[in-house]
Amino acid sequence: MVKCLHKDFNHPNGYSCAPENTKIGSLQMFVSNVGSCEDMGYRVFPVDQVHKISVLDIRLANADRHAGNILVSRDGKDGQMVLTPIDHGYCFPNKFEDCTFEWLYWPQAKEPYSSETVEYIKSLDPEQDIELLRFHGWE
User: Which intervals of the chain form a coiled coil (predicted)?
Assistant: First the structure.
């Protein structure tokens, strides 16, 4: 989340360099890619990449994760396939029954997590996450 001010943003009451004209939104980075997961068969995706997406989506309760919201890239060093999740506009829904994770049905999701991933999950502090969300205005 960022606060930003620019004259080209929509300012219905006219632009002035004033705090009330700042906009709040997300800062996004362009990711070079060869398409989305929707464009190719899911069986080719590396297990660790699918697990990375799963940990993020469960942590954010991303209710709109489908193959079109995951970009596929190739690592320049060794050509390794890299998955990049995009479109986090429906995270933290009011009802968890709204969550859909397409990757849940991929065979990679049925593989056990690596010890590194398990250690990362263990290091997460949900209470700290809740406090951070509250600090930023989430209830």
Answer: none
